[in-house]
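fyi for ur records
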Amino acid sequence: MKKGFTIMEILIAMMVLFVAIAFVNISIKAFNTYQRKSQSYQNLYITALSLKDWISTKPFDQKEYAGNLNAIEYTITIKELIHKKNYYFDSEEPSKSGNYGDFLVTLYSLKMILSDGNLVHKYDFFITKEKSLNPLPLKGIVK
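which gave:
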């Protein structure tokens, strides 16, 4: 009886090895694709939060903003939803409590569309802004 491998055993071993290498290669490519996509979504979300912070400092005199931040194109649409005076609570006479405060509080809806190449994502945020209805006089200024 001869010792060693037959040609058929060697071919089967090579096929198993090639299948294993192909599986590892496909897995690495899928992982890299997933990692790139995850990084792109993370960049979009960080940019959306930055835009939300930036836009909240604006007076909302425009209803739409568009531009480019971090190499990401954006469009922001602002819609006023509701505005009311702030709630005034009278502890002595609760029946006098209600929306009679000195501030006008407005709720806005922000709709953002961000695109990074072929990746497009939409974000919705709500922002409140308040405006004083009875401005206090500046101290030290006499009229």
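The longest helix spans residues 7-56. thats all i got for now
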